[in-house]
Design a protein that fits this description.
The complex is a heterodimer.
Chain A lengths: L6 E10 L2 E11 L4 E6 L5 H8 L7 E6 L2 E3 L4 H6 L2 E4 L11 H5 L14 H14 L17 H14 L4 E5 L7 H16 L3 E5 L3 H7 L2 E6 L2 E7 L5 H10 L1 E2 L2 E2 L2 H7 L2
Chain B lengths: L2 H9 L10 H17 L6 H17 L6 H26 L7 H19 L3 H26 L3 H20 L4 E3 L5 H7 L4 H18 L2 H6 L7 H23 L19 H19 L1 H11 L1 H6 L4 H27 L1 E3 L7 H12 L10 H21 L5 H28 L1
Antiparallel strand pairs in B: 1-2
Helix pairs in contact in B: 3-17, 4-12, 4-15, 4-16, 4-17, 5-6, 5-7, 5-15, 6-15, 8-15, 9-11, 12-13, 13-15, 16-17, 16-18, 17-18
């Protein structure tokens, strides 16, 4: 594999005051692949995501986008580099319709600075169609009338619309039922199929084993291992999450015994 | 993909992708509309039904209710309420409140009147100073809300009291300032549009309304659109309603019921033109501009708006500027109606009637839902109730009953709003 990863993190360090949250974390995400980011509560998943999204600044280490080191000083920088984070609480406006939400803050205007509703509606329909989304009756429906899975769909389709290179999904299936989870995971695969580097933050081992190409496990602020999906079993991943090591995978015994933090 | 998922995916096959024509399109449109109504998007239906019902009731109970004279009285009574409600809708859309809109209007009209009478300023200059004063007041309150973080309820309660005092000080001991007879400000509510101009403006309005819909553009873009039958029905409806109003206002009211004017009193009051212009401007701003979209977004989910890159504090300040500016216009319209500014201008129930108008029209007190048409319909409902009740109830306690009924209607509308909202989220 000599392809340049879409996103590569090298030796990321991040502390909040005396609390060392991330220490020398390495991580890669490739275009067209789903990279799962797993770990126990407090392992540093959210902090890592926020570092990529520009909400936190890293103390040490480099963020390398398509082989070029970049410094990210805020969410705007991350957005310019094509990073889109789909948060758990989705950040959609209930009182607006699907098109309005997908274009929020980036509305198209025609002459006289009036909203160009027609081209926005067409682009939104195309984005949804490219993900083979057919669960939505009309793109002019209010988001208030959508189910949890449909809302997730809208949030994900937004990243397609804006041609994001890196899409980070934070627990996308946490609040969904079985059938809707299935649909969203399907959507995640199709998103990766469009050449997007998808980073899936999840607690759900079934989801991870089902859709991920590569699995990165954080343990107490350290990257225990980033492995290919085919090379591990679910038991090994669970061991990595809970103990930081599994056989010859993961951290050395000294690091994983907690002395690291 | 499992069989179960397949089923769910195919269930929601879109009907609207394929552009259909004729009766089928009409049927699809009607079904879609009914579905939205059942989903809690009632729009203007409650206000229109309410307006028709109370109008019929008062027309049956009171012979002269639909006479040209009374319709004119109704319109000029409703005008200041409608103008203030238009401004308030912006603030309400963000889930905020401006309790001081009434006294802000009073203060601004007092500034205008005092400038004309005591400092010899021209009417237009005084008017502009009054409006600017309103905008500055709004900016101050918006800044306190957005940057300092004081709840708008508290800020505007404080200014509600303080501005009442400032107006009192400005007007002084004499209790009121009477506008000069020749002032153009008085013509607004007491002067009439020439008949030919009234009909011309109506024709322009109907033509403009017929042109503004984007059905052709949407067909070109291959999108589902409102059937032409529905558009035609709306245009004809507006034309009929406008023609009926213009015709009725064309009746000379001096010969029949009013002996105060020596010349003919015919044509619609100038304030109707002002109302139509204000409606078009703010409706355009809310529905066709990025700014309007962002107002709705901040009202619906401020956090989502912030993440989408919208500067929330700027939107917050701007709605207070619009609200206070419109309050100033409303105060000046009220001054034109009374041909004077009282020392208690804008106090009492001025604000409550305007908030009531917005809520009755369909604007939510919880933010995120509301349109400018709400101000017009709700303002008419409030004016019809006040006007009709005052004709109906005589005797010492009539004012008391009026207040009770207005309060009950306001509570009913707010209760309706809360129930609809619960139905949508639950």
């Amino acid at each position: 594999m000599t392809t340049i990863p879409t996103l590569e993190l090298r030796g990321i360090d991040k502390s909040f005051g005396p609390v060392h949250v991330l220490s020398s974390v390495n991580f890669t995400a490739n275009a067209g692949e789903v990279t799962a980011l797993v770990g126990d509560n407090g392992a540093g998943k959210t902090t890592l995501v926020k570092c990529i999204g520009g909400i936190h600044r890293v103390d040490e280490g480099g963020l390398i986008f398509d082989g070029t080191p970049r410094s990210i000083n805020g969410p705007r920088d991350a957005a310019l580099l094509g990073v889109e984070i789909v948060y758990q609480d989705l950040a959609l406006c209930d009182n607006l319709d699907i098109v309005d939400n997908m274009f929020l803050g980036r509305e198209e205007v025609s002459r006289l600075h009036t909203l160009d509703e027609n081209s926005m509606e067409n682009l939104a329909q195309k984005a949804l169609a490219s993900l083979a989304v057919r669960t939505v009756r009309s793109v002019r429906q209010l988001v208030a009338s959508l189910s949890g899975g449909q809302r997730q769909t809208v949030a994900i389709a937004k990243s397609v619309l804006w041609q994001s290179k890196i899409v980070i999904l934070d627990e996308p299936t946490a609040a969904l039922g079985v059938a809707q989870t299935e649909q969203v995971l399907d959507l995640v695969r199709r998103l990766a199929g469009q050449g997007v580097a998808v980073i899936l933050v999840s607690h759900n081992m079934n989801d991870v084993m089902k859709v991920a190409d590569s699995i990165a496990v954080l343990y107490l602020g350290r990257m225990a291992a980033q492995v290919k999906r085919q090379e591990v079993t679910q038991t090994q991943v669970v061991e990595l999450i809970t103990a930081g090591r599994s056989g010859d995978l993961g951290l050395s015994p000294a690091e994983s015994s907690g002395g690291a933090v | 993909m499992s069989a179960q998922t397949d089923e769910i995916v195919t269930q929601g096959e879109p009907e609207s992708r394929e552009p259909v024509e004729g009766l089928a399109a009409l049927g699809a449109y009607a079904r879609d509309y009914l579905a939205r109504v059942r989903g809690g998007e009632l729009g203007s239906i409650p206000a229109i039904v309410g307006l028709i019902v109370i109008t019929v009731v008062f027309a049956v109970l009171h012979q002269g209710f639909l006479s040209a004279y009374n319709i004119e009285a109704l319109v000029i009574q409703a005008a200041p309420i409608i103008v203030m409600a238009m401004g308030l809708i912006f603030v309400l859309l963000l889930g905020e409140i401006d309790l001081s809109a009434g006294t802000t209007g009073g203060l601004c009209s007092a500034i205008t009147a005092v400038l004309i009478l005591r400092h010899g300023a021209s009417g237009w200059l005084a008017l502009i100073v009054g409006l600017i004063a309103g905008a500055i007041i709004g900016f101050g309150m918006g800044w306190l809300r957005a940057r300092v973080g004081i709840p708008s309820f508290v800020i505007t309660l404080a200014t509600f009291l303080a501005f009442q005092g400032v107006t009192l000080i400005l007007i002084g001991g004499q209790g009121s300032v009477i506008l000069p007879n020749n002032s153009p400000l008085i013509k607004l509510e007491n002067g009439f549009v020439p008949l030919w101009l009234g009909w011309t403006l109506l024709a322009l309005l109907v033509i403009g309304y017929a042109k503004i819909n984007d059905a052709l553009g949407r067909r070109r873009a291959g999108l589902s659109r409102v059937p032409f039958t529905v558009i035609a029905a709306k245009v004809v409806g507006l034309a009929a309603l406008g023609a009926a109003f213009t015709y009725e206002m064309g009746v000379n009211r001096n010969l029949t019921t009013n002996a105060f004017f020596s010349n003919k009193a015919q044509g619609m009051p100038w304030v109707v033109v002002l109302l139509v212009i204000l409606f078009m401007v703010w409706h355009f701003v809310l529905s066709r501009t990025r700014y309007g979209r962002h107002v709705y977004a901040v009202g619906g989910n401020a956090e989502a708006a912030r993440r989408a890159g919208i500067v929330v504090s700027r939107i917050r300040i701007s709605v207070f500027v619009i609200c206070s500016g419109m309050a100033a216009v409303s105060g000046i319209v009220a001054a034109s109606l009374l041909q004077s500014v009282q020392s208690n201008a804008g106090a009492g129930n001025t604000l409550l009637l305007a908030v009531g108008a917005a809520v009755i029209g369909g604007t939510s007190l919880f933010g995120g839902r509301g349109r400018i048409i709400d101000a017009v319909l709700g303002g008419l409902v409030v004016a019809v109730i006040i006007n009709g009740m005052s004709d109906l109830i005589h005797g010492a306690n009539s004012a008391g009953y009026e207040w009770v009924v207005t309060g009950a209607v306001l509570l009913l509308a707010a209760g309706f709003d809360a129930v609809v909202r619960r139905g949508r989220t639950g």
